[in-house]
Amino acid sequence: MNDAERLIADYRERLTQATSDLPAGHRAELLSDIDTHLSEAVSQAPDEASVLQMLDDLGTPESIADAAREEAGVLPRGRTDGSLFYDVLSVLVLSLGGFVVPVVGWIAGVIMIWNGPRWTMTDRWAGTLAWPAAIAPPFAFLFATHAIPQFSPAPAWILLTGLFSIVLLVVPMVHLLRVAARRRSPDDRHPVKP
Q: Which parts pass through the membrane (predicted)?
């Protein structure tokens, strides 16, 4: 095996390892496409310098794998690590922070969720919008009682609005915690005791 072939073999091995978490069909298609490209490129310029340039132009196996993950909707490699403490704290700050320190607490929770290691874009948006959605009904009632003098809601409606607000807040938070628990690595779920 000459130096150019060795470089190609090393690149293929790195790409195979870097894409190990992709869905099987997506991974097979990607590896096949890259193998075809590498074979064509090597047949046109088989010397080591040309192969190095071609691999440099192609990009690192890790960058190719990252792009493929994004296209496939797979969480990036290394984003499954993190602690249970961070997950729970993020959800608590997101759900309760806005009540403790109005708006600023909610913003802190949003930042934590968006930087969290396990949530997808959809999960992040659900968490972001949960607190505003939960406080909207009580504020609508408050606004209506002050803006419309004859508006006087029955106590049952006030109770139902409060319960609805709690559901709007709790359901997305439970979802975020469940998603995080499913995506936590086995090592995080069962830490080894010293």
A: 88-114, 126-148, 154-177
How far is CA 98 from each of CA 20, 84, 104, 105, 155, rounded to the nearest angstrom? 40, 22, 6, 4, 25
- Complete DSSP assignment for 74-132: PPPTTTT---HHHHHHHHHHHHHHHHHSTTHHHHHHHHHHHH-SS--HHHHHHHHHHHH
Compute how many other C-beta atoms are within 10 angstroms of the C-beta atom of residue 61: 20
Which DSSP state fits 192? P
Please give the C-alpha separations between residue 84 and each of 92, 127, 177, 180, in angstroms, as whole numbers.
Answer: 12, 17, 9, 8
φ, ψ of residue 63 to 5 degrees: the values are -70, -35
Query: Average pLDDT over the chain, rounded to whole?
Result: 82
pLDDT digit string, tens, across residues 55-88 = 888 888 888 888 888 787 765 544 444 578 888 9
Q: Is the pLDDT of residue 52 over 60?
A: yes
* pLDDT, tens only, 124-165: 999 999 999 999 988 888 888 878 877 777 778 788 888 999
- Measure the CA angle with vertex 104, ends 100 and 106; round to 5°: 70
**Structure-model confidence comparison of residues 166 and 192, the more confident one:** 166
In which region does residue 23 sit, left (phi positive, over 0), alpha (psi from -120 to 50) or beta (all else)?
A: beta
